[in-house]
Amino acid sequence: MWSEKYRPSRIEAMVGNEEARLKLLRWYSEWKFGGKAALLLGPPGTGKTTLVNLLASERGLNLVELNASDTRTKDAIERRIGEVMMSTSLFEERSLIFLDEVDGLAGRADQGALESIKEAVKSSRNPVVMAANDPDSEKVRKLSDVSVVIRFKPPPPREVEMYLRMISGKEKVVLGEGRMREIVLLANGDLRYAINAVQSSGSTGRKDVEPTVAQAVNSFLDAPDVDSALRALRAYPGQPREKIRDLFSSVLRSRLRPEGRARALEILSRADVLIGEMLKGKDWRLLRYLDSTLARELRPVVSGEGLQYTQDGTPWNLLLRIWNDSKKIRELGTAYSTRVHTSRRGAVVQDLPYLFVLCAAKKFRMGVVKSLNLDEPFDKFLEKEVGRVERRG
Predict the structure, then answer these.
(1) Which of 152, 157, 262, 269 is the most buried if burial means most Cβ atoms within 10 Å?
(2) What is this structure's pTM?
(3) Domain of 174?
(4) What is the pLDDT of residue 36?
């Protein structure tokens, strides 16, 4: 993707937000043990993550990236964030801790998490940078007490246009004057969106207008080329795993020839494994390979075969229960396999059925929840599974 190819390699090469860049550099140069964190606030695509990566690279720091929205409870915060904030290398080398999406903390599940973050910042041996998209979030306001707030704003249209012209010149993309200005206007300061629009020779719709799931899937299934397929996949309004599920459902209920269907399902299976690896390692960069894999490998298999979006025929209430239960089983399998040092697949297929039988004893069930460090709702889930096992028996 051009947005990755043309990601700035130096801080001074970034577009816009000069004041914010200088403020972050000043904060880092003055940071001392016990000092405040830097809290970067601004809309997506304005350079927050890029700036943090460049700061670590140019200062020779070990960058440790964590996502707050995936580390929501007090215990998880103290276990995953507190430890890394207090650690140093053998040679006392400094790390830069980057805690992204702090405005993603929400609901009851994060009770105590904010206070744990604030305490960890105050005692951290390493400088901490936090980032959020929503400056009005209550979570953000509470974290401002221990932070130097640095605000990002969309870069000026003229600077965005100049940068896009540089890219289009290097890539030999010819865009009319009106088309270039339209892209700049529609991007509304989101440089990633603007670069992707130039790569696809311009986007036909406004950034904030999303197609339906059916429209996005059908656009992909009917795509005449790779670029059109990519645009359709990137416009999909749901989560990556939902995208795979909808494509899987459409392929499964199609009239593809057996060999074509087998090939399509194999590609979707590999894409699902890629998502699994991304979620397991919290390596969100792997996400950029998902759409390109589907566009280059799946599109040739389904193109011209008359496939259309087909929603899963299972009733929604039953589908939701199956989906939620399968998520619980995957989470339980992951926790169990880590605890007993086995594979998750082996845990789910071989061990969990026996575990559900043993969980008929409440004392054993509570011991499992505590031993695997599971949330309280898992006790009810295990109790429900025990009931299903007893009814089948």
Answers:
(1) 152
(2) 0.49
(3) 155-205
(4) 92
